[in-house]
């Protein structure tokens, strides 16, 4: 009898112990003095802004872009992703980047010459000389191909102007050599296929124009591109 009573006592003590243990644990959870973790503003967790793709110059700069003038490469911190090339003629016999710059400022009230590159014909600059304009150096939109949806051709297309009027004559051989080199460089750097190398008059959405002239050898140029 005494044994039974002891057994009952032990069980009761054990149950009371378990009961208070549970209370302690619950109480510990509910009334802890530890402060709640604060939600701290963290810019990295707020919105995942995908940075623009940084195009790094290929190692050594020499092998991949052999004999490419240094000023064809825009400042890396400004460089943007270009998607197309638009080729123009100046529709004049003579000219160079400075002359077109003055003309576009005075006649069109633009910030300056509308193109990114101007390729001379030996009149006011060297035959085949490639001039790089402020638009390319600053990587800002051009003013060379109006009328496209959202102005995409000016914003995302690279404007190249060859001096001359190709409604009446063909570009010089040196102009075409320089153009080919420049277009190949731009294609490689920005992954632009030949299907997005346009003449002004074949740029999707562009206003009707004769530019770059019916004598401009567009299909021949395209046949000489690598992709
Ligand atoms: Zn044009």
Describe this structure as you would to a colleague.
- The protein has 227 residues and is an alpha/beta fold.
- Helix content is 35%, strand content 11%.
- It contains seven helices and five strands.
- The protein has a five-stranded mixed β-sheet with strand order 3-2-4-1-5.
- Strand 2 and strand 3 form a beta hairpin.
- Residues 16-34, 39-46 and 52-64 have low confidence and may be disordered.
- Bound molecules: zinc ion.
- Zinc ion (ZN) is lined by residues 88, 200, 209, 211.
- Zinc ion is lined by residues 88, 200, 209, 211.
Helix content: 25-40%
Beta-strand content bin: 5-15%
Please tell me the overall pLDDT: 83
C-alpha Rg (nearest Å) = 35 Å
Tell me the span between the first and last alpha carbons: 101 Å
Coarse morphology: elongated
Strand order of the largest sheet: 3-2-4-1-5
Could you describe the largest sheet, including whether it forms a barrel? 5 strands, mixed
Q: Write the H/E string, N to C.
A: HHEHEEHHEHEH
Bound molecules: zinc ion
The total count of strands amounts to 5
- How many helices? 7
What are the low-pLDDT stretches, counting only 5+ consecutive residues below 50? 16-34, 39-46, 52-64
Which secondary-structure class do the elements indicate? alpha/beta
């Amino acid at each position: 009898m005494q044994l039974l009573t002891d057994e009952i006592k032990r069980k009761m003590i054990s149950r009371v112990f378990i009961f208070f243990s549970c209370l302690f644990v619950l109480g510990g959870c509910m009334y802890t003095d530890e402060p709640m973790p604060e939600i701290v503003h963290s810019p990295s967790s707020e919105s995942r802004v995908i940075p623009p793709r940084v195009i790094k110059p290929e190692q050594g700069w020499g092998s991949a872009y052999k004999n490419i003038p240094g000023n064809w490469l825009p400042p890396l911190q400004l460089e943007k992703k270009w998607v197309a090339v638009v080729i123009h003629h100046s529709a004049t016999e003579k000219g160079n980047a400075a002359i077109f710059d003055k003309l576009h400022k005075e006649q069109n009230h633009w910030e300056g010459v509308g193109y990114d590159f101007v390729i001379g014909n030996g009149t006011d600059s060297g035959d085949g000389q490639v001039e790089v304009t402020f638009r390319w150096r600053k990587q800002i939109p051009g003013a060379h191909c109006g009328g496209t949806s959202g102005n995409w051709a000016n914003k995302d297309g690279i404007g190249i102007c060859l001096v001359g009027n190709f409604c009446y004559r063909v570009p010089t051989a040196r102009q075409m050599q320089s153009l080919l080199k420049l277009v190949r460089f731009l294609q490689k750097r920005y992954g632009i296929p030949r299907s997005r190398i346009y003449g002004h008059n074949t740029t999707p959405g562009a206003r009707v124009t004769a530019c770059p002239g019916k004598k401009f050898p567009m299909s021949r140029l395209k046949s000489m591109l690598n992709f």
